[in-house]
Amino acid sequence: MNRRFLMIGFINSLLGFTIKPKRAFAVTKPMSNYKTLTDAEWENRLSKEAFYVLRKEGTERPFSSSLNDEKRKGTFSCAGCGFALFSSKTKFDSGTGWPSFFDHLPDAIETKTDFKLIVPRTEYHCRRCGGHQGHVFNDGPRPTGKRYCNNGVALEFEADS
Q: What residues are paired with 114 via a beta bridge?
């Protein structure tokens, strides 16, 4: 465990955030543009934890997501809108406490620079709804060398049939 994970865990415990894995989004009717939903509409659709991560760019506690141990073949999708983001073929155990992937599906994410911890980091979001997923680092395995460190509450998993 390194300083980054200790610091994030410490800050989350001070703020009292507890993330419990559960289905974050239930589609009640088709929508054409998720990016136009208001915070109030998102709050009605998402759990408190999912809203904090997806819409307020929060971070869940490390080792709190059941998806961390998910080993089946399938697809990881945005918990906000259901858009496919990662294949299980790119998932790996980074030891960080969050589901990690070395690559995303084509055209699945958008990135921006985040200065919340003073040091610039690359933050990534779901391309369809803009929901915050996590951060990408340059310490992942081959072939990309990337580690897409994702909040488990921001994902849903569908196993291949």
A: 121
Is the pLDDT at 76 greater than 70, yes or no?
yes
Amino acid at residue number 26: A
Distance CA 124, CA 138 (A): 14
Distance CA 62, CA 38 (A): 28
Query: For residue 124, what are the contacts with CB-CB under 8 A and spacing of at least 6?
Result: 104, 109, 110, 111, 133, 134, 135, 136, 148
Active site residue 129: no
On whether the CB atoms of residues 150 and 59 are closer than 8 A, the answer is no
Domain 3-28+37-159: top CATH class: mainly beta
pTM: 0.79
Contact 76, 88 (CB under 8 A): yes
Q: 142 has which bridge partners?
A: none
Which is catalytic among the residues 78, 126, 129, 149? 149
